[in-house]
Design a protein that fits this description.
Elements: H1 7-20, E1 30-33, H2 35-38, H3 40-50, E2 56-60, E3 69-75, E4 78-84, E5 90-94, E6 107-110, E7 114-115, E8 122-123, E9 129-131, E10 150-156, E11 159-163, E12 187-195, H4 199-204, H5 212-215, E13 230-234, E14 237-243, E15 264-270, E16 274-278, E17 282-292, E18 295-304, H6 311-326, H7 328-342, E19 350-353, H8 358-370
Antiparallel strand pairs: 1-19, 2-11, 3-4, 3-6, 4-5, 5-10, 7-8, 8-9, 10-11, 12-18, 13-14, 14-15, 15-16, 16-17, 17-18
The structure holds FE2/S2 (inorganic) cluster and fe (ii) ion.
């Protein structure tokens, strides 16, 4: 499948699963060698040949609301800065000054120019070197030949995608998606945190609902279902639908009039390392940056689900985010960190992903195919 199912098709499929006591099933089981979570060579290949060469969401467009807005962080081990230029266009650069390599900005903010704080070389928002303090110390230096070094940045579906190394791999398969982050969704929190866990183990915890009953008996299960998901894949990506109990009321609504907002959670996995979780009243854009085989930096951007500047939409989104972040997400993090601590035990040569875990199978199949053989 190259596009995601529409909301009405998802709703019907969920109602059928509820009626029949079933869930979506993948075609095969998958055995992923534990060595693939522990090997520095494997991680190096994942970073260099997949993460850097895939158009990957860097931040939501909402993080760059005006001319001069910038976000700087490391992506796939390389300092990158994205900035909205005077023409409103988003550009991305390798975040290293052309004098002696200092990062020209850190974190996020809004600036009229990018000024390196080591010696003050100054770049405009389009990356051109505009000013060198005491320029007479650099006779003959051509400022035109020393711009910030660009990488590919594209704004799409409310996200800024960055491709560090060309040629970009993969197809243009986001084509099937009509929206991810809408213009009336407001960014209200950003968070950055490191976890002692391999990035793929962390990722896997987002994209299957087989664990809901055991891991989330009090947080998610009372509102949701045990092992009842709709899973679609599109290109290298996937989407897992987690319905809430209250979706049952749609059975009485004519199919064409069914609206799913607030009745289910969509979790999009954008290959390779980004998750977009569309919850009842808020949306998280989660980026998992591998730092080492056993260490991952999680960047989270939290947005309202719409409503523009309406204070009530914002208050609802904050309440919803507080609940999910303080309960279910903590339970997931405890599990993945425990798995990480046991990886070296030798108990498993491989992990087995079953037919309920088909989004993970799709991920490993896609990743394996993207890596050089050998
Ligand atoms: S390293 Fe940037 S001005 Fe010297
Ligand atoms: Fe979970």
């Amino acid at each position: 499948m190259t596009t995601t199912m529409d909301d009405q098709s998802v709703a019907q499929r969920v109602l059928d699963h509820i009626a029949n006591g079933t869930t979506d099933l993948g075609r095969q089981i998958w055995r992923e060698p534990v060595a693939n979570y522990r090997s520095p060579e494997r991680l190096k290949a994942e970073i260099e040949t997949v993460l850097r060469c895939t158009p990957t969401p860097f931040c939501p467009s909402a993080a760059l609301p005006e001319v001069g807005s910038y976000v700087a962080r490391e992506a796939a081990g390389i300092p990158i800065i994205v900035v909205r230029g005077s023409d409103g266009k988003v550009r991305a650069f390798r975040n290293a000054c052309r004098h002696r390599g200092m990062q020209v900005a850190a974190g996020s903010g809004c600036a009229r120019a990018l000024v390196c704080r080591y010696h003050g070389w100054t770049y405009n928002l389009e990356g051109k070197l505009r000013h060198i303090p005491h320029e007479d110390g650099f006779p003959g230096l051509d400022k035109e030949a020393h711009p910030m070094v660009p990488v590919t940045a594209v704004e799409r579906l409310g996200l800024v995608f960055v491709t560090q190394d060309e040629p970009a791999r993969g197809d243009d398969s986001l084509g099937g998606l009509e929206k991810l982050i809408a213009p009336d969704q407001r960014l209200f929190a950003t968070n950055e945190r490191d976890f002692e866990v391999n990035w793929k183990i962390f990722l896997e915890s987002f994209i299957e609902g087989y664990h809901i009953k055991s891991t989330h008996p009090e947080s998610f299960l009372p509102y949701g279902f045990d092992n009842l998901n709709v899973i679609d894949t599109f290109g290298p990506h996937s989407r897992v639908t987690y319905p809430f109990q209250r979706i049952k009321k749609l059975a009485k609504v004519p199919p064409a009039e069914r609206r799913v907002e607030g009745l289910l959670t969509y979790v999009y996995h954008l290959f390779p390392n980004v998750l977009i979780t569309v919850l009842s009243r808020h949306t998280n854009v989660v980026i998992l940056e591998p730092l080492a085989i056993d260490r991952t930096r999680q960047f989270t951007y939290t947005l309202t689900n719409g409503g523009g500047d309406d204070p009530e939409a914002l208050a609802e989104a904050k309440r919803d985010a507080g609940f999910v972040g303080n309960t279910g997400a903590q339970e997931d993090r405890a599990v993945v960190q425990a798995i990480q601590r046991g990886l070296a035990s030798g108990a498993n040569d491989a992990f087995t992903f079953g037919k309920f875990e088909s989004a993970i199978v799709h991920f490993h199949q896609t990743l394996t195919a993207a890596l050089p053989r050998g």
